[in-house]
Amino acid sequence: MDTDVDEVEVVVAHQARATLRVGDVFLKVDGDQTYTDVEVEAMTLAPVPTPEILWRRPPVLALAALPGAALGRLGRPSTASAAAWTAAGATLRVLHDAPLPAWSGKSLDEKAASLDVECTWLLTNDVLPADLVTRNRELAGAALRPWTPVFMHGDLQVAHVFVEGDEVTGILDWSEAGQGDAMYDISSLTLGHPEHLDDVVAGYGADAVDLDVVRAWWSLRSLTAIRWLVEHGFDPAAPGCEIDVLRAQL
């Protein structure tokens, strides 16, 4: 009997969830099924390419692999073409123009409260210089304004967008999706890759983008992510990652 199986690759693993790849299948294991519920519903509703759902048996969700490769990785130069980045912007605009999902993402008040808590933690524990935190907190304030909600992905890291050539083949990881701020998604996509912001805006539509708010979200997202990254085994101080983003903002 042939007992050979594909090698198991650990894509990501931390206390909240783990993702494994076995051949052309991704297995996502999540301790909180609320996130999986959101992911499945969002992928069903989203009018953009998403992975095929193969099956779900809580706590596991099985997804088919997407063709192509990630648009980029935080901390590394992107090898994707400018046209691919522009296509990502156009695809994101399609999502944002779609009918709203029934559920909301985090509110303005929740975002502001999170910023307060995380900046206090950074300063109290001497994680970052006070002037770096203070100045970026000031910049982040531009993001904390009322927004017209759109169908927001909610965690549109550059590694979650797959492309083949100059075409988007799919978007991954929808567990944070909901109604939210369009500029947050654009900011997440371009975090650490400011050289491609113009490409994304060209595809999305310059008339609908507030660049100051996008940059404000770079500060806010980085400030509020550092503690979580440290506590889950990631390094926000790695070259090109969150702490370098904060420094570049100055």
Question: Distance N terminus to C terminus?
Answer: 62 Å
Question: Order of strands across the biggest sheet?
Answer: 1-2-3-5-4
What is the overall number of helices? 8
Strand count: 10
- CATH fold naming: Aminoglycoside 3'-phosphotransferase, Chain: A, domain 2
State the domain count: 1
CATH architecture: Alpha-Beta Complex
CATH homologous superfamily annotation:
Aminoglycoside phosphotransferase (APH), C-terminal lobe
Beta-strand percentage range: 15-25%
Unreliable spans are none
Overall pLDDT metric: 95
Classification by helices and strands: alpha+beta
Explain what the structure shows.
With about 250 residues, this protein is of the alpha+beta class. It has one domain: Alpha-Beta Complex (Aminoglycoside 3'-phosphotransferase, Chain: A, domain 2), CATH 3.90.1200.10. Helix content is about 40%, strand content about 20%. It has 8 helices and 10 strands. The strands form 3 sheets. A 5-stranded antiparallel beta sheet has the order 1-2-3-5-4. Strands 6-8-9 form a 3-stranded antiparallel beta sheet, with helices on one face. A two-stranded antiparallel sheet has the order 7-10. A hairpin with a 2-residue loop joins strand 4 (about 55) and strand 5 (about 60-65). Helix 2 crosses helix 6 (about 195-205), helix 3 (about 110-125) packs antiparallel against helix 4 (about 130-140) and helix 7 packs antiparallel against helix 8 (about 240-250). The longest helix has 21 residues, at about 210-230. It is globular. The model has no long low-confidence stretch (mean pLDDT about 95).
